[in-house]
């Protein structure tokens, strides 16, 4: 069964008294290559943000840095476009507020989601979902952003993944009853993350993000040397401290330069 547009709109209305998204700006598809691509095409055709594309299945979904995002039926695959006004230096904040907003709202449903730098949502040490953000720049500023989100609901997952349906035991009454409700919750989380960023600023957002970063204090090997993860910079870089001979050195690693990986044991 595909994603039910009417039920999704009802779920959105139940969560948001004044949701900043018109039902006519929600596009639902059965099988497409990529929701990010569809949203980009809609923008090129003159459609105005905010707008959302949702697919029951993607055939060419992509994660960050061109990695393939496995998108079989049963998962949540959506992309949302927003009008923005950010400096180029603030680009990493898009992923920070999106991932933090999604994690914090799922935790309100008793799903203990954490964050894995820079853009993964994790549950019980496994990957629950991920985020791929794209932006456009006009006159030196970021004027639009596309936030692509994939969440494992009841779909097949790789050994490093976990789905929400497998997280709940057979005797559990799930706090989220449907894929459509999950979609509404995820979109609400993104908007709440964005509003938190606008109202509280990047420093407060970064602090909140780091509180959910499950790798804090963990060891990581960089160029053959073991260091300790100590946080994330305002530019979205991973901070790693190296201790040797009574002295400490801290470096910042840009996204894409190192993978923290998953434990498949």
TrEMBL record:
Q: What InterPro entries does UniProt report for this protein, alphabetically?
A: aa-tRNA-synth_II/BPL/LPL, Biotin_CoA_COase_ligase, BPL_LPL_catalytic
Supply the Pfam families for this chain. BPL_LplA_LipB
Which Gene Ontology molecular function entries are recorded, alphabetically? biotin--[biotin carboxyl-carrier protein] ligase activity
Q: Which keywords appear in this protein's UniProt record, sorted alphabetically?
A: Ligase
Task: Name the domain of life.
Answer: Bacteria
- Cellular component annotations (GO), alphabetically ordered: cytoplasm
Q: Which CDD domains match?
A: BPL
Question: BPL/LPL catalytic domain: which residues?
Answer: 20-198
- Annotated NCBIfam families: birA_ligase (TIGR00121)
Q: Which PANTHER family match?
A: BIOTIN PROTEIN LIGASE, BIOTIN--PROTEIN LIGASE
UniProt-recorded name of the protein:
Biotin
Q: Which organism is this entry from?
A: Aphanothece sacrum FPU1
